[in-house]
Design goal:
The chain is an all-alpha fold. The chain has helices at residues 5-19, 67-84, 93-110, 116-125, 129-136, 142-149, 154-165; strands spanning 45-46, 49-50. The chain has a two-stranded antiparallel sheet with strand order 1-2. A hairpin with a 2-residue loop joins strand 1 (45-46) and strand 2 (49-50). Helix 3 crosses helix 7 (154-165). The two termini are 24 Å apart.
Length: 168
């Protein structure tokens, strides 16, 4: 849900004063963007054109985070060009695992089974922040993922997972 500019300003002001204890500050620049949260299978390549960033599917579906994924993708493309003479990179099997997690969360959010604020608050409050960041960057181990997922609303996530796997 997009907020108005004033709503964002008010929320940031409250956060800065309440959590950072800063009363006087200035804003040098502002930016605004809407990051898509989708598991749409973006085209990776079209002939000699290689898509990067959001257009190439490097945006994490469940969070909209893109920067680290672009860096990794470009590093892999560069390495493949140097080593093989062509920019062909294999998708790791773990990508399917994380796409599944992302798709389950997107299903929960789109069907309004739980609000995103509640899910992400619980995610960070119930888990080690470093483990959560590794999880969100698709760099965690299956054991860590199981521990993190077990701290979430199990019933809601299980129903969404079954719904996703059954194609509904």
């Amino acid at each position: 849900k997009l907020l108005s500019g004033n709503e964002y300003d008010t929320a940031l002001d409250e956060y800065i004063s309440r959590h950072l204890n800063i009363e006087k500050y200035g804003i040098a620049e502002e930016e605004f963007g809407v990051i898509p949260m989708t598991n749409y299978p973006f085209e990776q390549q079209n002939g000699n054109i290689i898509y990067i960033g959001t257009a190439g599917g490097q945006t994490k579906p469940s969070s909209g985070y893109t920067f680290q994924f672009i860096q990794n993708h470009c590093r892999q493309l560069s390495k493949a060009l140097v080593e093989k003479g062509r920019p062909e990179i294999a998708k790791p099997l773990a990508d399917k695992r994380f796409l599944f997690y992302d798709s389950v969360l997107l299903s929960i959010l789109s069907k309004k089974n739980l609000p995103g604020k509640e899910i992400f608050t619980r995610l960070f409050k119930q888990n080690n922040w470093y483990a959560v960041l590794q999880f969100l960057e698709n760099k965690s181990s299956p054991l860590t993922e199981l521990k993190i997922i077990s701290t979430l609303h199990k019933g809601v996530f299980l129903k969404a997972a079954v719904r996703y796997l059954s194609g509904k």
